[in-house]
Amino acid sequence: xxxxxxxxLPSSRADHPRDRAGDGALHEEGTMMVKRGNVRTxxxxxxxxxxxxxxxxxxxxxxxxxxxxxxxxxxxxRTVAAASAPGVEPGSTVLVSDPRPxxxxxxxxxxxxxxxxxxxxxxxxxxxxAEAALxxxxxxxxxxxxxxxxYMQGISLWRAGDHAGAEAALRRTLEVDSTHTKALLxxxxxxxxxxxxxDALDYVEKVVALEPESGQGxxxxxxxxxxxGMVVEAVSAYRRALVLDHRxxxxxxxxxxxxxxxxxxxxxxxxxxxxxxxxxxxxxFQNNLGIxxxxxxxxxxxxxAFRAALDADPGYRKAQVSLERVxxxxxxxxxxxxxxxxxxxxxxxxxxERWKQMAREEQAAEPVGAEMTTGGALGRDG
Length: 382
What we know:
Layout: H1 2-7, H2 17-36, H3 39-67, E1 77-81, E2 93-97, H4 117-125, H5 129-142, H6 147-159, H7 163-176, H8 181-193, H9 197-210, H10 215-227, H11 231-244, H12 249-261, H13 265-278, H14 283-295, H15 299-312, H16 317-330, H17 341-365
Antiparallel strand pairs: 1-2
Helix pairs in contact: 2-3, 4-5, 5-6, 6-7, 7-8, 8-9, 8-10, 9-10, 10-11, 10-12, 11-12, 11-17, 12-13, 12-14, 13-14, 13-17, 14-15, 14-16, 15-16
């Protein structure tokens, strides 16, 4: 009964020198015992063979499990597929210890005690956002009724790159104070970055209802509409933001970007020209202007815009790729007449003044006590 069991062991066992030696010794000693007819020795052989076979199977299972543990994994326990371990239900996992020495476990960090808002804010201001998030968490444990502690924890987590944590902290802010407009606005921004424009819209609409004169609120509302594909509404919101702040270069950039996404490249040029005139040091603005210039055939101007983007941020990969692409085409192209970007920027500034005049006329014509909505006559101009 023993030899057939050994014959059914995995073939990979033959690669193990210790297993091959064990098989040979068992076969040779078993033949001698049969010839002598020693029953007691044969029984001993049975026990011996069972033990050897069990040791071989255990060795083989251990080797297979270790084969599933990559050399690049970290120290400590690993999860491996259940198929690599006999007797485990498929789809489950088992823990296998790494044969290498374990690293010292990292103790869980305890939150400091008696942290003040000022302590955490000082760390935030020096740019250590992950540490600031921990300190604001400690502060909120002690003072959960202060919405600003939760708010600053959310902002710290956002800047540290933890969007899920930031969302949770900003929601806690609103549980304490549902009218906290900064929390509403920045929660909408976080949700947009997480690809949740419908959720973001709910919060930013509350912002413009609470603070209708907030240019940032209207800009973020435009971003939400843009991400939802509501182009007319997005243009209306961006225009409202520019009526409130005619030098808001970010809103100009966002309006130009929306036009690029819609394939309306000529319409993208004026707001982007004005944005780069106001903020020539922002690489994103220059890059977007370069895209619009390239798509309208103004390749020489596009090269200048991409170079300006790289001057502002030498590591800006998108601008580098675009510059290489356009430079290879400039010598072979017949570009249109030189484009006067300063003229376009000036014309867009004048257009904003016309929007402001229209808004004043609308306001004068509104009945007293009428509520401001997110639509209005400006939507018709989009």
